[in-house]
Amino acid sequence: MQPQVVQVPLPILLLPSLLLHIFIPLTHPKSTIEPCNSSDSCLSLLYYILPYDSKLSEIAYRFQANISDILGANSIAPTTLGDQIFETKSIFKVPVSCSCVDGIRRYMSTTYTVRPADTADSISEGFGGFVSAEQIKSSNGINATNPLMSGQSLVIQLPCTCFGNVNNGIPAVYMSYVVKIGESLDNIATEFGTTTMELEGINGLGQPVVNPGDILSIPISACSSANLKWYKESLIVANGSYALTASSCIKCVCGPNDFNLRCWPSGIAPLCYDQLRCKDSDLFIGDSLVHKTPFGCKVTSCIYRGHNGGKIYRR
Ligand SMILES: *[C@@H]1O[C@H](CO)[C@@H](O)[C@H](O)[C@H]1NC(C)=O
Ligand SMILES: *[C@@H]1O[C@H](CO)[C@@H](O)[C@H](O)[C@H]1NC(C)=O
Ligand SMILES: *[C@@H]1O[C@H](CO)[C@@H](O)[C@H](O)[C@H]1NC(C)=O
Ligand SMILES: *[C@@H]1O[C@H](CO)[C@@H](O)[C@H](O)[C@H]1NC(C)=O
């Protein structure tokens, strides 16, 4: 099914961060609405450019994301430690659980504890411009009589989209993206392997024009376990990333060329070793063996089939 998108007049919610409107006149930021049910949430990504040097664990804490999920989404070695520091301007695709807030709009919600030197602008910048200073103030009742207080806990909502994790009938994960100064819709489409028309459609743009600070939803092709007949498990993995599953025993990768989900032992979890070999076979999960027979070749494979209650299924 095609995602249903509607152009909405933009409330104060999506004003660009102050940092940006020092340089540019106020424009008409775009967003996407998506009819949704409060019970459903999905995997979504935030394209986050580090505003300052940060430990991996700080990024995870900020977005209430799981460190191993962040490593997977960015194809960084699963053994990387949380105290590893990444430099300003490093780019992370932060995996978030995107939930339905008011029936038509999706957000991931996190909280932020105000520090002594913080302003609404610095907090907005810390969240990569996914939430504006105005939004932070309005959703937390901050004004001249109720200023930000050090130690105060703020609710922060960052826009995300799901669209059923499909795009043109193909599995997809949607990524929120803050338009930077000097970027056009064409640039962005090219960078992420999509088209201007597609971005216009998904984001409900009336014309192929974007402005700095606008937040776009960008489809990233993905691999899904949907047609693999997994038992008690479903998984969606964006192009160019991996996911750990079955208590980190199994690593699944989305191949960039054929868009098949391929899974094999992760090698990082010792407790699953006796569950990684197929029955009556020398093959481990992910292995294939080609036998030459008088009638041609026969391939035997040992394939991951999902997991449940500590048991790994394979065949
Ligand atoms: C919400 O859930 C109900 C019941 O499960 C379903 O009929 C309806 O189509 C859902 N709406 C959306 C927008 O997904
Ligand atoms: C992160 O995710 C992995 C795999 O799903 C899980 O085993 C681990 O407990 C999670 N860690 C945290 C801190 O939630
Ligand atoms: C600030 O907000 C409070 C309620 O949150 C309201 O009572 C007060 O009048 C507001 N002050 C100003 C200056 O807008
Ligand atoms: C998948 O990602 C690779 C880089 O990891 C990129 O070269 C390729 O164009 C992407 N494919 C699609 C369909 O987005």
From TrEMBL:
Domain LysM, first and last residues per copy: 110-156, 175-218
A Pfam family matched in the record: LysM
Protein's UniProt name: LysM domain-containing GPI-anchored protein 1-like
Keywords, ordered alphabetically: Signal
Translocase keyword on record: no
Signal sequence extent: 1-29
Lineage start: Eukaryota, Viridiplantae, Streptophyta, Embryophyta, Tracheophyta
Organism: Durio zibethinus (Durian)
Annotated Gene3D superfamilies: LysM domain
Keyword Cell inner membrane: no
Top-level taxon of origin: Eukaryota
InterPro entries assigned: LysM, LysM_dom_sf
